[in-house]
Specification:
alpha/beta, 4-stranded mixed beta sheet, Glyas_Bleomycin-R_OHBP_Dase, 3 helices
């Protein structure tokens, strides 16, 4: 089994806000959605490392504060600096996971994200 994508939730009408964060801050590429799915709103992104994130509209949106994707990132320190410079908090992990550097942050909507380097 391999992972195809991870889906997070977003509120209706948040697509431009999502683009600002996922493309503008993280450097992801927006992926085109099939027309029938595009009509539902939301957005799809691919990280520089090739992980796909889908953000789907939930009418009663609540950000995922605990559940989260963990994305491998080649330049973890550079990403942390970029996220911090954009005004978002970065919380570095401790040594609970041997051999893995990691940090958590929250996207522009409050969804938790983890970035790791192994």
């Amino acid at each position: 089994m391999t992972l195809h994508h991870v889906q997070l939730a977003c509120p209706p009408g948040s697509e431009d806000t999502l683009r600002g964060y996922y493309v503008g801050v993280l450097g992801c590429t927006e992926l085109p959605k099939p027309p029938v799915l595009a009509a539902r709103g939301g957005a799809w992104f691919r990280s520089p490392g090739g992980a796909d994130l889908h953000l789907g509209v939930e009418e009663d949106f609540r950000p995922a504060r605990k559940a989260h994707p963990a994305l491998n990132w080649a330049d973890l320190d550079g990403l942390a600096e970029t996220i911090t410079a954009a005004g978002y908090e970065v919380t570095w992990g401790d040594d609970e996971v041997p051999g893995m550097r990691r940090f958590h942050t929250f996207d522009v909507l409050g969804n938790r994200l983890e970035f790791v380097a192994t």
